[in-house]
Amino acid sequence: MNKRFFLSEPHMSGNELKYIEKVFQSNYIAPLGEHVNKFEESIKDYAGAKNALAVISGTAAIHLALRVLGIGQDDDVLASTFTFIGSVNAILYQGANPVFIDSDKKSWNLSSKLLNKYLCECDKKPKALIVTHLYGQCADIEKIADICALHGVYLIEDAAESLGAVFNGKHTGTFGDFGIYSFNGNKILTTSGGGMLVSSNKEWIDKAKFYCTQAKEPFVHYEHLEYGYNYRMSNVLAAIGVAQMEVIEERVAKKREIFEWYREFLGDVKEITFMPELENSRGNRWLTAMIFAKSDYNKIMKALEEVNVESRPLWKPMHMQPLFSDAKSVVDGTSEELFNKGLCVASSTTMMKDDVKMICDVIKENICGTGGRT
Ligand SMILES: *Cc1c(COP(=O)(O)O)cnc(C)c1O
């Protein structure tokens, strides 16, 4: 049996242990240290972000953004419905109400049309929008940013999956008031767990830093006027991040190459449509995602599992989750259809072309209407 092909497994650059060694030599295991600063600098350099704050997770970064923006009890916060729960949990932490917006067909990400329609018609103006660049592919972010600016709605970009994705020459995460990245175990880069908050507003990042280190007022005895969190990233994990950032462009190139291999082997299969890429954008193709016109994806998933290949249905939209059965939503069936028809498939950057070919052969054997077995 071949080794397991995961959706997206950790892929070290080779320098991680060396930098961790340095951390140990300096004994700055925790809390902070030079690697935290270096990691933040590398994100700023790479993504063109003005200010960055390294924290324990992408979820924590979103939480800090909402807190700094003053979003609280009973405020409405718009969000992509087609996303992972980590995008929106923090709305609940703040006692606010999510309002979910559906995707459009041309990006599979948040529909700027539905967003604009809602903002023109709603009685209660939402305070913010959390837009996700799903599977590493850019949302129509310039248009979305314009609409938010027009209506006075703060924009938070959930770029957890899209580090390295660029829209019109500018990195995802840098269009909004805040952007967040994740370094969880399955993301394009990983620190085993971690996140980054970025913003062009220095005061906001300073405030987020204050909240994420227990909201200590500047007195030696630790005075407290507000409550905070313990969300700061450790120097050990930041050392991993510094080494990972050295290979970000390599990883993006490889993810995109893997996608091209899938397209080469499956592109002529009418049954299959791949997640699109907007004009003027370069996604990072974190996971290759596709929908099947008629085939039962459970059968395909099962067949892949039998040859030790991981695949997974596309994210179940938030408005369909029991947790959010009472939440407002603006939907037109797009994300529901994607969820009903789609899979993401093994896209680890350690994979070779032959691995992808083997996976594609299994997919082809298990779809209907193209000479497959059913
Ligand atoms: C992974 C992820 C998050 C959360 O990031 P963590 O670092 O795991 O907290 C948020 N949103 C999306 C879209 C993600 O994929």
Break the fold down into its secondary structure elements and pairings.
Elements: H1 16-26, H2 34-47, E1 51-55, H3 58-68, E2 76-80, H4 89-93, E3 97-101, H5 112-121, E4 128-132, H6 141-151, E5 154-158, E6 166-167, E7 170-171, E8 178-182, E9 195-199, H7 202-212, H8 235-245, H9 248-266, E10 272-274, E11 281-282, E12 288-292, H10 297-306, E13 311-313, E14 328-330, H11 334-341, E15 342-345, H12 353-365
Parallel strand pairs: 2-3, 2-4, 3-14, 4-5, 5-8
Antiparallel strand pairs: 1-9, 6-7, 6-11, 8-9, 10-12, 12-15, 13-15
Helix pairs in contact: 1-8, 2-8, 3-7, 5-6, 9-12
The structure holds pyridoxal-5'-phosphate (PLP).
The site of pyridoxal-5'-phosphate has 14 residues, from helix 3.
InterPro entries: DegT/StrS_aminotransferase, PyrdxlP-dep_Trfase, PyrdxlP-dep_Trfase_major, PyrdxlP-dep_Trfase_small
GO biological process, one term: polysaccharide biosynthetic process
Enzyme class: transferase
> How many domains would you count in the coordinates?
2
Choose one word for the global shape.
globular
User: How are the strands of the biggest sheet laid out side by side?
Assistant: 1-9-8-5-4-2-3-14
Structural class computed from helices and strand pairing = alpha/beta
CATH homolog superfamily of the largest domain: Type I PLP-dependent aspartate aminotransferase-like (Major domain)
Question: Compute the gyration radius: what is it?
Answer: 21 Å
CATH third-level topology of the largest domain: Aspartate Aminotransferase, domain 2
CATH class of the largest domain: Alpha Beta
Instruction: Name the hetero compounds present.
Output: pyridoxal-5'-phosphate
Report the biggest beta sheet as strand number plus sense, adding barrel if it closes: 8 strands, mixed
Portion in strands: 15-25%
InterPro entries: DegT/StrS_aminotransferase, PyrdxlP-dep_Trfase, PyrdxlP-dep_Trfase_major, PyrdxlP-dep_Trfase_small
GO molecular function, one term: pyridoxal phosphate binding
Organism: Sulfurimonas crateris
Active site: 187
